[in-house]
Amino acid sequence: MKRQLLSLLLLVSVAALLSRVLGSCNKAESIRMLSPVVLPVPAGFPDPIYNNTENPLTREGIELGRHLFYEKRLSIDGEHPCASCHEQQASFGTFEHDRSHGVYNSHTLRNAPVLVNLAWSPYFHWDGQFDKLELEATQPITGDHEMGETFPAVIRKLEADPYYNNAFRNVFKTNSIEPMQIVKALAQFTATMISSNSRYDQYKKGQVLFTPQEQAGYQLFLQHCNSCHREPLFTDHSFRNIGLPIDPALTDLGRMRITANKEDSLKFKVPTLRNCYVSSNYMHDGRFLSIQQCINHYRFQVQNSATLDPLLRQGIMLSSEQVDQLMTFLKTLTDTSFITDRRLARPE
C-alpha cells in the first residue's frame, strides 16, 4: 500500500512537471506566432521617438490596428471611423473641408491634422495635448464632436466579432479586450505611416535633379521656412503663434487650452509640409483652401500680438515670381506612393 501511494505521488509529480513544461512550450509557441517588425528609418531621418519597447511592433498588431482605424463601430453612430477624418488621399488628413465632421452631423473644433511620420513626433494634436502615440486616439474616440463613444461600448461591439476576439487574443495574449489594447493597436498601425519617397526625397538621394524652378523654390524655402518647417520632417514640432486672426465663433486659444499659460495663447503645433499639396484645407481651423493663400498670409496678413513668433514680426517678403518658385518646390514634397500604399488602405 505504501509502495502504491509512493508510485501515485510520483505519477502526479511527473504529470505536474510535464504540464508546466508543455504549458511553457505552448506559451513560447504562441509568442513566436507574432512576427516582429522593425520600424524603418528613412535615409536622412533622425532616430524615431516612438518607444517600441513599451508597445513592440508586430505584423499582427499593425494589421489589427489597421482594421480598427477603418472600423465604423468605434463611433457611436456607426458611421465615423478614424479614417472618416483622416483620409489616405489627403495624407491622412481631412480632405477639402475646413473642420472635420463628427457623429450626428457635428463639427469638430479643428481641422484634423495629417498623420505623417508620427513616430518622430514628441507631441500630438494641434495643441500638444498628448505626448504618447498610444494615448492620442483616446480623445477622438470619446470626443462628443468626433466619434462620441465610450470604451466599454466599443469593447462590447468588438467582442461580438470573432475576428476581433481572435486578433486581440493573439496580439495581446489575454482573453478579454482592454481599452489600452485598442489604442496600442492603433498606435502600431499609425506608427507605420511613414512618408519618405517624394520627389524631394529622391533629389536628396541623388536619384533625380530639380528643375531650375524647383531649385530656386528650395533655396527660398531654406531661407524663409526651414527654421520652423525643418527638413527632413518639415516640422520642428514647436508651438508658434503665426499671426492668424482669432475666429470669434471658435475662440480657440491653442496651446494655452492645455497649459493655462498666457504665453502660449494662439500657439499651435507647426504642421509638417509633407504632402501639403494633397491635404487641403490648411491651418488649425482649415480656413485656407490653397497653399497660395497660406503663403499670402505670411506676406500680407500676419496679425501682431503679444505672443506672435518673433520670426514673423516683419512677415515674409516674397515677390510673385518667388511665390511661384516656392509653390513649385512644395509640390516636390508629394509622396504618391504614401497616399496610394495598399498596406495603409482599408482592409479588403
Structural write-up:
- With 348 residues, this protein is mostly helical.
- The chain folds into 2 domains: 59-195 and 338-344, Cytochrome c-like domain (Cytochrome Bc1 Complex, Chain D, domain 2); 199-335, Cytochrome c-like domain (Cytochrome Bc1 Complex, Chain D, domain 2, Orthogonal Bundle).
- Helix content is 39%, strand content 1%.
- It has helices spanning 2-32, 59-69, 133-136, 138-142, 151-159, 162-172, 179-191, 199-204, 212-224, 256-259, 291-301, 320-331, 336-339, and strands at residues 239-240, 268-269.
- Strands 1-2 form a two-stranded antiparallel ribbon.
- The longest helix is centred in the N-terminal third of the chain and has 31 residues, at 2-32.
- It is globular and about 60 Å long.
The dominant shape is globular
Structural class: mainly alpha
Q: How many runs of DSSP E, i.e. beta strands? A: 2
Q: Please state the average pLDDT score.
A: 91
**Could you estimate the helical fraction of the residues in percent?**
25-40%
How much β-strand is present in the residues?
A: under 5%
Low-confidence runs: 1-32
CATH class of the largest domain: Mainly Alpha
Our Rg estimate from Cα atoms comes to 25 Å
User: Strands of the biggest beta sheet: in what spatial order?
Assistant: 1-2
Largest sheet: 2 strands, antiparallel
* CATH architecture label of the largest domain: Orthogonal Bundle
